[in-house]
């Protein structure tokens, strides 16, 4: 058993082709997340914010479409999203960058030959794999009776999938359809779609010695055709095909918990040159000295809240939201944000792939009303900026603007999270009016009736900046702790 464990750790060190910390005591892997923001993508701050707010709204509302098709929690694109890299054993081995997405449950990427329809503009602006990899000769399709095939097709019965794969009726009845491949699956999302097939591969990676390492039967989606999506996704959601779930099958200590700490960037690409740490497994905090006792990196306080099961979107990390405080005013959340019903409606999704937090109209309106009563009576509303950015309310100011504190109250004792000001109020220079302006970065997700059958709210990655967000799959909870993410990377990388 010990040999297998060390074997897996060595494999992952090579497989992810990035600075990795392996600790025999803490049993963790440390991987770098890169932010996809580029200064050349947007013509102005207004353009950047409008693009990001529109994408956040599109992704959120896509969860509530009435459809029989499998839907991925996308779109993802540069400007607000995070990527991790690994190397596939093609010939020659090729590095692949994938979006980290806690809102979906599959690892997939473009494969050669690859056709991407309506990708001309995206191919230039997106973080793309310069040449889609070719599958190795050892890659094999997943058979139609496998649980992985069922999961990729929204848990359709294997008999139905084998019938689609043209397995004869007598073989379906006897369960002898292992020679028939899992049918291609269709994923749809906010601004595109893809068709892919499931594969398994034994990925071999060379060491410094002549020997090599092999991880058997890693399952991934290989897309030869896509619409408006040239980049793949590393699904970290709650599903059997996700990266954490597959790690759990090989080494539970690596797959039963993961966390990330997103470096605060304020849409400044210079601030994201250093990686944001992605941590697989549990790690031990170093012992604290008296000087370090108050350092948030060495004495983090985690606020935990329980995960809620979602029957319609089982891969979501849903939690309950009790309310939001604006200054001293505590605004209770509507009841449907505290739980998830049998139709998959309600709750709040903690999502690495949505930028701005989306709230139901009633809660958003109450937050804005309280914000306006405190800020709007002193500062002038910037209506023109609101129209150009998709954010509201926005205010003009001259030197310094005073805004109230914002606190998220999750279900569970001691589960309140105080947001840093920069996480909910974005300040920039309005070149059109030659004035400073600031905007609230919480968004209206729609009326409760519009949100039926899907999440009631989403906690976006912009509001998660400067926190270590812990997904504890064993104890079924999500935790938040204020951290200096760049320092956390450095301290973990030093061991």
Automatic annotation (TrEMBL):
It comes from the Eukaryota. Keywords: Aspartyl protease, Glycoprotein, Hydrolase, Protease, Signal. GO terms for cellular component: extracellular region. SUPFAM superfamilies: Acid proteases (SSF50630). Pfam families: TAXi_C (PF14541), TAXi_N (PF14543). One of its GO terms (biological process) is proteolysis. One of its GO terms (molecular function) is aspartic-type endopeptidase activity. Belongs to the peptidase A1 family. This is Peptidase A1 domain-containing protein.
């Amino acid at each position: 058993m010990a040999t297998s464990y060390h074997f897996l750790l060595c494999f992952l060190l090579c497989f992810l082709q990035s600075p990795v910390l392996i600790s025999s005591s803490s049993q963790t892997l440390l991987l770098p997340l890169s932010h996809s923001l580029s200064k050349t993508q947007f013509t102005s701050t207004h353009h950047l914010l409008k693009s990001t707010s529109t994408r956040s709204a599109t992704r959120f509302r896509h969860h509530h479409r009435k459809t029989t098709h499998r839907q991925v929690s996308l779109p993802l694109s540069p400007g607000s999203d995070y990527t991790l890299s690994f190397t596939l054993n093609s010939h020659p081995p090729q590095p692949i960058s994938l979006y980290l997405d806690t809102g979906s449950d599959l690892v997939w990427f473009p494969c050669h030959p690859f056709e991407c329809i309506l990708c001309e503009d995206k191919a230039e602006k997106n973080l793309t794999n310069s040449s889609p990899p070719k599958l190795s000769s050892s890659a094999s399709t997943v058979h139609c009776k496998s649980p992985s095939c069922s999961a990729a097709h929204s848990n359709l019965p294997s008999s139905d999938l084998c019938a689609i794969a043209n397995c004869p009726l007598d073989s379906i009845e006897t369960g002898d359809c292992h020679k028939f491949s899992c049918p291609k699956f269709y994923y749809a999302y906010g601004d595109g779609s893809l068709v892919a097939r499931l594969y398994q591969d034994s990925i071999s990676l060379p060491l410094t010695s002549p020997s090599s390492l092999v991880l058997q039967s890693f399952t991934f989606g290989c897309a030869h055709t896509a619409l408006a999506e040239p980049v793949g996704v590393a699904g970290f959601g709650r599903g059997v095909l996700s990266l954490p779930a597959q790690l759990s099958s090989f080494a539970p200590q690596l797959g039963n918990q993961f966390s990330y700490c997103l470096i605060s960037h304020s849409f400044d690409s210079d601030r994201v040159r250093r990686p944001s740490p992605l941590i697989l497994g549990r790690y031990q905090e170093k012992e604290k000295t008296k000087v370090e006792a108050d350092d948030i990196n060495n004495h983090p306080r985690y606020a935990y809240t329980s995960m809620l099961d979602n029957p319609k979107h089982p891969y979501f990390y849903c939690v309950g939201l009790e309310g939001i405080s604006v200054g001293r005013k505590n605004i209770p959340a509507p009841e449907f944000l505290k739980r998830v019903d049998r139709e998959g409606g309600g709750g709040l999704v903690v999502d690495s792939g949505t930028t701005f937090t989306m709230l139901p109209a009633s809660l958003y309106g109450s937050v804005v009303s309280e914000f306006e009563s405190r800020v709007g009576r002193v500062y002038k509303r910037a209506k023109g900026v609101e129209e150009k950015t998709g954010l509201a309310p926005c205010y003009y100011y001259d030197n310094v603007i005073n805004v109230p504190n914002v606190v998220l109250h999750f279900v569970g004792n001691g589960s309140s999270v105080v947001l840093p000001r920069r996480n909910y109020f974005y300040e920039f220079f309005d070149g059109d009016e030659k004035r400073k302006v600031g905007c609230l970065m919480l968004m209206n997700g729609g009326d409760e009736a519009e949100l039926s059958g899907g999440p009631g709210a989403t906690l976006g990655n912009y509001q998660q900046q400067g926190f270590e967000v812990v997904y504890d799959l064993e104890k079924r909870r999500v935790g938040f702790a204020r951290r200096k993410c760049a320092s956390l990377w450095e301290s973990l990388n030093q061991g």
